[in-house]
């Protein structure tokens, strides 16, 4: 029998690389949704199954694990239905394909520059709101569509400017307590309701705005900016992680890098 390394080909290297990439992105999606422990448990189970059934050839234990694995696909679809939906929506997103097109066409690169024009107004508005200790919650759409959340608030279309953002979050405004959603380079809605994260890892001193921001970042790839009403500090949530007490320069850099 030939040794394994003698039969190792370029196709095998590509196969291993693709599996590694798949596992990495699966881990990142599950980590952002708070299911990291579930992923680690599943990965451990697969290793035990391969060891018992394929390597050690234990008949009884192997037969039991084989039966579990045979119905595992349906079980995984039920358990990870939200994560699978998020993954598929991300793949099919028109913005994702636009990012590929950007490398080949000047028109797409120009569209990217147009979309980034809103960075300065958002940063300026957050800076002014923080100075006044006025709370704010701003969700910025990336590749995944936020239409489901847009329809929970007051829908309109407006060009992005700092004065408008500050007026929407003015303390006596009826839209003050909800979230503003920015999509396609425009303000699309305000007073929106976002999903609240139930993560135990979040600091208990942080309020509903921070939990809502984290909740949306766990379910979508949107970036959510928070201005604390109590502390007058700026934070943002992205990919299931919350970054607290950032400066305006750090916020600007994060917006330009991630969006």
Kindly name the structural category.
alpha+beta
Uncertain segments are: 1-5
Number of strands: 7
Q: What global shape is seen?
A: elongated
Largest sheet: 7 strands, mixed
Strand order of the largest sheet: 2-4-3-1-5-6-7
Helix/strand order, N-terminal first? HHHHHHHHEHEHEEHEEEH
How many alpha or pi helices?
Answer: 12
Report the portion of residues in β strands.
5-15%
Nearest-integer average pLDDT: 80
What is the share of helical residues?
40-55%
**Could you tell me the radius of gyration in angstroms?**
23 Å
Distance between the termini: 53 Å
Task: Give a short overview.
This protein has helices spanning 10-32, 36-55, 59-70, 72-79, 81-92, 94-101, 106-115, 119-131, 147-150, 162-168, 208-219, 248-258; strands spanning 136-140, 154-158, 179-183, 186-192, 223-227, 234-238, 241-246.
Fold and architecture overview:
- The protein is 54% helix and 15% strand.
- It is α+β, with helices and mostly antiparallel strands.
- The longest helix has 23 residues.
- The chain is built from 12 helices and 7 strands.
- A hairpin with a 6-residue loop joins strand 5 and strand 6.
- The chain is elongated, with a radius of gyration of 23 Å.
- The N terminus is likely disordered.
- A 7-stranded mixed sheet has the order 2-4-3-1-5-6-7.
């Amino acid at each position: 029998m030939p040794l394994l390394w003698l039969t190792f080909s370029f196709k095998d290297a590509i196969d291993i690389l693709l599996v590694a990439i798949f596992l990495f992105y699966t881990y990142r999606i599950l980590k952002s949704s708070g299911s990291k422990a579930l992923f680690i448990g599943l990965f451990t189970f697969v290793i035990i199954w391969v060891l018992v059934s394929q390597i050690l050839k234990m008949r009884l234990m192997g037969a039991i694990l084989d039966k579990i694995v045979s119905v595992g696909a349906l079980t995984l679809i039920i358990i990870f239905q939200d994560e699978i939906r998020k993954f598929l929506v991300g793949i099919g997103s028109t913005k994702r394909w636009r990012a590929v097109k950007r490398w080949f066409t000047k028109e797409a690169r120009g569209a990217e520059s147009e979309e980034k024009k809103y960075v300065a107004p958002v940063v300026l508005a957050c800076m002014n709101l923080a100075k006044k200790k006025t709370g704010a919650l701003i969700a910025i759409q990336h590749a995944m569509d936020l239409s489901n959340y847009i329809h929970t608030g007051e829908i309109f279309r407006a060009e992005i400017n700092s004065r408008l953002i500050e007026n929407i979050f003015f303390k006596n405004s009826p839209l003050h307590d909800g979230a503003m959603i920015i999509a396609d380079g425009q303000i699309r809605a305000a007073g929106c309701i976002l999903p609240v994260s139930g993560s135990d890892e979040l600091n208990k001193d942080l309020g509903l705005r921070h939990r809502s921001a984290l909740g949306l970042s766990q379910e979508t790839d949107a970036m959510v900016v928070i201005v604390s009403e109590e502390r007058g500090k700026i934070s943002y949530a992205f990919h299931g992680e919350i970054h607290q007490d950032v400066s305006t320069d750090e916020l600007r850099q994060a917006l330009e890098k991630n969006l």
